[in-house]
Amino acid sequence: RQRQMCIRDRYYTGCVSVPLSVYDGYMASDKSNVSFLENNKLNNEKYLIVPDFKLVSLGVKRDIEDSIEDINVFVYGYSKEPCLDKLPCRKSIVLDYKLENEELVTNEYLNRVYQECIELFDYLDFKNVKNIHLYVAARQSVAFTVGKAIQKHHPKVYCYEYKNGQYTWKIDIKEGKIIK
Fold first, then answer.
1. 3-state secondary structure string, the chain?
2. Could you tell me if 69 and 131 are in contact, meaning their C-beta atoms sit under 8 angstroms apart?
């Protein structure tokens, strides 16, 4: 009863690797309110984002055949296209969250990422996909938000680290294990 006011439990900023940010988001899930400290790339000033992560269906339609066990999912928020070479699966989905002209990350932007990711992961679970190979090229707040959208009933998720032009290791998000 003492915590009736909306008090933020955690503040997140980071220079950690993207797969670890996704894992942090998964571990936090719905257990805590998180605010993000981001950097404005135009003037190098810091700003705070206080998302509310409302779950409202966006109704995004996907069409994936029933026999797919493994799928690549790309989430990117930079103007550079994701690297699609040498991937483990033949089927891929790209979620494009590019910020034009170094726009600021906003609450609405993070809510859109959260909504689309949770709907996609729910759909992949419904289609009996067993493994999601997740590639995120975006800011820390976006990577954390993608992780927050991963639920226990979703398929197994492997998130990959991209370094020097190649994917160097992955983390099993649900197990918290790094695989080289």
1. CCCCCCCCCEEECCCCCHHHHHHHHHHHCCCCCEEEEEECCCCCCEEEECCCCCCCCCCCCCCCCCCCCEEEEEEECCCCCCCCCCCCCCCEEEEECCCHHHCCCCHHHHHHHHHHHHHHHHHHHHCCCCEEEEEEECCHHHHHHHHHHCCCCCCEEEEEEEECCEEEEEEECCCCEEEC
2. yes
pLDDT per residue as tens digits for the range 114-155: 999 999 999 999 999 999 999 998 889 999 999 999 999 999
Provide the whole-model pTM. Answer: 0.86
